[in-house]
Design a protein that fits this description.
9 strands, homodimer, four-stranded mixed sheet, 8 helices
Chain lengths: 202, 202
């Protein structure tokens, strides 16, 4: 039985997933975040080891060969992947790790790990999603439409997830994610030692 | 797929289960409580329909014959049982119902219902349990010992439950039970309609 828990969190552009996770990590700093390995060049403002590990194409391919990635994909010539090491460490040693990944990545991780808990962050309505995606004001109508379609495709697969958290009010959505994590800690499989602790002194 | 959730709550004498549940119902008055059907005489202070429905032996046996009890037992000549009707109503119409029952009753209910969520309320230690059981001061040493043994037998079966809630501090234990209930409401199986609601307007 695994000691720790792996949480997969997905949500389309416009779901507010990043803001929610930021607040969850502030409230529960003990939770680990899965840092993606990527091969594209670092962009201004990005910091090595914060959200990404910037590694070479050769290093990435070596990790693939050794089955050290839980999921990966290639996008305009660059690799993006979730390294297995930090996840295995949590499973063995306890605690929780959150992997932020898209619906395809989530499906691939579920194939490799028998026990995951997955959360889909959902906009409250079609209209709100459209407003959020067009509200940035920097995109062409065509780009908004494209992102809208991608978002709807992801939402159509929300039923692959264990939980749906609707991001209508930010604070409520943050509380909901925290509830799911606290609930995990109450599961018998993570607390079996308690039974023997109480009985052990009979 | 069931719309509502059935929560089974067990815990030995001295676990503080009754106090915890009282506070959970105060905080979440929308949650239903499964009223046991019993055939013993009403005692002073008891109110029909509060914790028990006092019914005749004939009525009870008729319910058994019609498979209208989720579990039952006989104790010094009286029947005690969990009627099926209110539970089925929650499963069909939504919401939650809490069934307070011992470990044998819980095991029997799990055989009849495919989807239950069960919580075992646990004292924090052997010593605290012993203090709580002897602390009432009204019982003989022999009675305390008997209740202690019964409690330990129940604790040894805590691993049959989905969750363990340790009652060390009352408020924390109440929060834990509330977390488990709120978590249920976030499950995809209870929120699938949301997916179509957002997609429906495409």
């Amino acid at each position: 039985m695994n000691k720790g828990s792996v949480l997969i969190v997905s949500g389309p552009s416009g779901s507010g997933k990043d803001t929610i996770l930021k607040k969850v990590f502030e409230a529960m700093p003990e939770i680990k975040f899965s840092i993606s390995s990527i091969t594209r060049a670092m962009r201004p403002g990005e910091v090595e080891g914060e959200k990404y590990n910037f590694i070479s194409r050769e290093a990435f391919e070596e990790m693939l060969k050794r089955d050290m990635m839980l999921e990966h994909n290639e996008f305009v010539g660059n690799y993006y992947g979730t390294p297995r090491g930090p996840v295995d460490s949590v499973l063995e040693n306890g605690g929780e790790i959150i992997i932020e990944v898209d619906v395809n990545g989530a499906a691939n991780i579920r194939k490799k790990l028998s026990e995951t808990v997955s959360i889909f962050i959902m906009p409250p309505s079609f209209e709100v999603l459209k407003n959020r995606l067009s509200g940035r004001g920097t995109d062409s109508a065509e780009n908004v439409e494209k992102r809208m379609n991608e978002a709807l495709c992801e939402i159509a697969r929300a039923d692959e997830y264990d939980y749906i958290v609707v991001n209508d009010e930010l604070d409520k959505a943050v509380d909901d994610v925290i509830t799911i994590i606290k609930n995990l800690r109450l599961k018998t499989e993570r607390q079996k030692y308690l039974i023997n602790e109480v009985l052990g002194k009979c």
